[in-house]
Design brief:
The chain has helices at about 210-215, 225-245, 245-265, 270-285, 295-310, 320-330, 330-335, 345-355; strands spanning about 1-10, 15, 25-30, 30-35, 45, 55, 70-75, 85-90, 95-100, 105-110, 120-125, 145-150, 155-160, 165-170, 185, 200-210. By secondary structure, the chain is an alpha+beta fold. The protein folds into two domains: about 1-210, Jelly Rolls; about 215-355, no CATH class. The strands form two sheets. Strands 1, 4, 5, 7, 12, 13, 14 and 16 form an eight-stranded antiparallel sheet that branches. It has an eight-stranded antiparallel sheet with strand order 2-3-6-15-8-9-10-11, with no helix packed on it. Helix 2 crosses helix 3 and helix 4 (about 270-285) packs antiparallel against helix 5 (about 295-310).
C-alpha cells in the first residue's frame, strides 16, 4: 500500500502548501506563481529563470522510501538540445527529469547488481526500455501528467499520461532515503542547474506505507479483550527488540528476507499477479474474522506452494531457519508462550503450522 507524503497544488504564491498530512511544504525560489494552470484558477508555478525552483526541506517522511511513486502535471515550454530538465529530485535518492530531445527519465541511487556500490541508474522512454520499442518524448506546450514508479524491489517505470513508456525489471534495490539536501522541484538540489523550462500545476509523491502491515493486522474484528491483549504484546515486543540483540538481529534478518522474497516474486509478472489475487482473498477472510475455518485452509493450500516457489523462501530456507533459532533463543519466546487471549488468531497459527508442515 502507498502513502501520500506530498501533494502540492500551487494555489498560493511564495509557499507550496502540502495537502498531505506530512507537512512537506515547499518554498518558491524565483518561481512565478500562476493563477491559471491546467484549468482556470487551478494554480501553477512557472520556472522562467535558471535559479527558479520549489524546495522541500529534509523530512522524516522521505526516509525510508524503498517504494516511490511520483505524478507531475506539467507543461513543458521547450526541450533543451544539450541539457536535461529536472522535474523532481531527492538529494542522493532519486531523480525524475527530461533528457535532451525530450526523453523522459527516472533514476535512483543504488547498487546496480548485488554487492555493487551505489550508482545512479534507471529507465528511459526509449529502447531498450520502451515496451513497444519506440522512442517517446514529452509533449511540448500542453499540460501532461508525467509519472515515475519504483516498486521497491525489481521494477522501475516512467509514464506519459498514464501510458508506460519505459520499464525495466532487473533492479536489486529500492529507493534510498532522501539526503540532507531535501527534495527540489524544477532544478537540481545542489546548484542552479538542470532548470525546467515550463510550469507545474500539481505534484504528488507517495512512498510505501510503513504502517500498512499493522493497519491490515488490526483490520479484523477485535473485542476489547483481544485489543488490550495485542496492545500489551506489541509493547512488550518493542521492549524486547530494544533489549535483546538476538531478537533485533532476527527482525533485521527477516526483513531482509522479506525484501529479497518480494524482489524474486516481482521478477515474474504472472506469479506477481497470482500472489496479489491470493493476497486479496486472504485479506477478505482476515477482515471478516474468518481466520481458521475451511475457506482459510483451502486458500493456504493453494497459496503457500505459489508463495514459496515465487519468493524462494520456504520452510527449509536456511536463512529462515537461522532467524527462527535466534528468536527461539531470545527471551521473547518464554515471555509469550501460552499467549492465548486471542483464540481465533491462535487457531490461525495452528492451521498455518499444519499446512506448512504438510510440505
Amino acid at each position: 500500500m502507498l502513502q501520500l507524503i506530498c501533494h502540492h497544488t500551487y494555489k498560493t504564491p511564495f509557499v507550496a502548501i502540502d495537502l498531505s498530512r506530512h507537512q512537506n511544504h515547499g518554498a518558491l525560489h524565483d518561481a512565478v506563481h500562476l493563477v491559471d494552470g491546467a484549468s482556470p484558477s487551478s494554480g501553477a508555478v512557472a520556472f522562467r529563470r535558471p535559479t527558479a525552483n520549489v524546495h522541500i526541506g529534509p523530512s522524516s517522511s522521505f526516509s525510508p522510501l524503498g517504494t516511490l511513486r511520483i505524478d507531475v502535471r506539467a507543461r513543458i515550454d521547450a526541450v533543451l538540445p544539450a541539457d536535461r530538465m529536472n522535474l523532481v529530485e531527492g538529494h542522493l535518492a532519486f531523480a525524475f527529469f527530461i533528457d535532451p530531445g525530450g526523453v523522459l527519465v527516472g533514476t535512483f541511487l543504488g547498487p546496480s547488481a548485488a554487492g555493487a556500490p551505489p550508482s545512479w541508474h534507471g529507465v528511459q522512454s526509449q529502447p531498450p526500455f520502451s515496451p513497444d520499442g519506440a522512442r517517446h518524448t514529452v509533449p511540448v506546450g500542453t499540460w501532461t501528467t508525467l509519472s515515475y514508479g519504483h516498486d521497491g524491489h525489481r521494477t522501475i517505470e516512467v509514464s506519459i499520461d498514464g501510458r508506460v513508456v519505459g520499464r525495466r525489471n532487473d533492479l536489486v534495490a529500492g529507493v534510498p532515503p532522501v539526503g540532507s539536501g531535501g527534495t527540489t522541484v524544477g532544478s537540481w538540489p545542489n546548484a542552479a542547474r538542470f532548470s525546467l523550462q515550463g510550469a507545474v500545476d500539481d505534484l504528488k509523491i507517495w512512498r510505501c506505507d510503513p504502517n500498512a502491515v499493522a493497519d491490515e493486522f488490526l483490520s479484523r474484528p477485535l473485542g476489547d479483550r483481544e485489543g488490550a491483549c495485542w496492545a500489551e504484546l506489541f509493547a512488550a515486543l518493542a521492549r524486547a527488540m530494544r533489549s535483546d540483540p538476538r531478537l533485533a538481529a532476527a527482525g533485521a534478518g527477516l526483513q531482509r528476507m522479506r525484501s529479497d522474497g518480494g524482489r524474486n516474486a516481482a521478477g515474474d509478472a504472472a506469479a506477481l499477479a497470482r500472489n496479489r489475487a491470493f493476497a486479496a482473498r486472504f485479506l477478505a477472510l482476515w477482515r471478516s474474522g474468518k481466520l481458521s475455518g475451511d475457506p482459510m485452509r483451502a486458500l493456504l493450500r493453494e497459496w503457500l506452494p505459489e508463495l514459496f516457489r515465487s519468493t524462494g523462501i520456504g520452510p527449509s530456507h536456511r536463512g529462515l531457519s537461522a532467524e527462527a533459532e535466534r528468536v527461539a533463543a531470545s527471551d521473547v519466546v518464554g515471555r509469550f508462550r501460552g499467549f492465548d487471549c486471542d483464540p481465533e488468531f491462535a487457531a490461525f497459527i495452528r492451521l498455518l503450522g499444519e499446512e506448512i508442515r504438510s510440505f
